[in-house]
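#struct-help
A.M.: can someone run this one for me? Single chain, 154 residues.
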Amino acid sequence: MQTKFVLESELIVIQFPQEETNSLIVKLAKQGKKVVRLKGGDPFIFGRGGEELEVAAAAGIPFQVVPGITAAIGATAYAGIPLTHREHSQSVTFITGHCKNDGNELDWPALARGHQTLAIYMGTVKADSISKQLIYFGRSPRNPCGSHRLWYTQ
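D.P.: on it. Structure tokens below:
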């Protein structure tokens, strides 16, 4: 997880565990500072926005959410790829490539069923394992697949 701070026109990237980010939000807000947690896309689609709001609410800190468009919807629309289509995909499911190690696995048989689009976030590292699971549970190896990776320059 990366947290970006802009100080005096310099971009400083500091990595914090989520718990430290949550603590920092509460600490700065209780000092009377205005805290802006800027996230790209939808802060509630694998963005940990829900975790941060729970902490703020528990601490009695008022907050406001400005919604965004999640990457799977924005990137595919920009590329001209519909996530649903009457003839090919009647549903879309957003999943993460990184589940917590608590035994709560993805429902591979349900995900392997046809006529649905899978939008897999953070799946690059486990792409081989994910594709093997989907094929094992019945998804066709010929199923079309798209990939998007964030690229940026300074």
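A.M.: thanks! The chain has a mean pLDDT of 85.
D.P.: also worth noting: The helical segments are 18-30, 49-58, 71-79, 108-112, 127-136.
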